[in-house]
Amino acid sequence: LMIRRPPRSTLSSSSAASDVYKRQAIKPPKLSKIRLAPLSKVEELMIAADLGRFLAVLYGLNELMPQYPRDPILYFLKANMLRKLGRVKESVVNYEKSIGLNSRYSPAHLKLSCSYKEIGDLTAAKKSLERAIELDRKNFRAFCHLALLDQEAGDLDSAIENYLRALRIKPDHAESNKYLGAIFLETGQTQRAVKLLDRAIETNPDCHESYCNLGLAHKRLEEYGDAIKCLEKALELCPDQIAAVKALDELKGSKAAR
User: N or C: where does the chain have the smaller number of CB atoms within 10 Å of the terminal CB?
Assistant: First the structure.
C-alpha cells in the first residue's frame, strides 16, 4: 500500500505563521495585569511569515519580546519560526516558555508535540497531545496527530478511534480522511477506504498519496477504469510512486491482453 508509516509533518495546509489556525482568529490570550504586544504588530509579523520571510519575522519577534516579555503568543510564534528554520530544539524551549505563561493554550501544546516528535521524544509528544485535547476537546488536529503516533506504534485500533474522533469534529479534515482511508485499505475495508479517500481528495485535490490509494482501492474492487484514472492522476502529481507505477502497468497489461 502507498501509506504504511505516516511522515513526520502533516499539517501543511495552514499558514506559515501559526500552522494551527487562520490569521484573523489569532488573539493574544486574555491574561490580567500582563502587557501584551499590540495585535497589529503581531499580525504584521504573521503576514511576513505567510510570505516565507521566516528570518525577518524571527528578528522582528526578538526586537519585540524585550518590550513584552510575558506575552505568550510571542514565544509561540517564535517557536513556529524556529521550526520552519529547522531549529527544532530551540522551538521546544520557546513553546515551553509560551506554555509557562499560559498553560491553557491548546495550540501551543499541539505544536510542542510536533517538535518533540521531530527530535524523537515520542513519550513527551503524546503527553503534549493529550494535554492539548484535555484543554480543547474540539482540537481535531490533536486527535489526528495522536492517531499518527498510534499508527506509527502499530496500534491500529487506537489510531482508528482517534482518526474517527477527529472526523466527528471536522468531517472534511483531509489528513484524517487520508490516513484512515489508508488503514481501511490495508485492513481490507475497501469500500470504507474509497469513501474516505474520495473525501480527502475533495478537500486536498493535489494529494498524490490519496489518488494512489484510491486507485489501488478501485483496482481491488475491479473498477478498472476508475483505478486507471486515479493512478494516472497520482503519477501526474508525483511521477516516482512505485506502487502507482506497478499497479498501472498491471492494469494496462491485463487490458491489452483482453
Answer: C
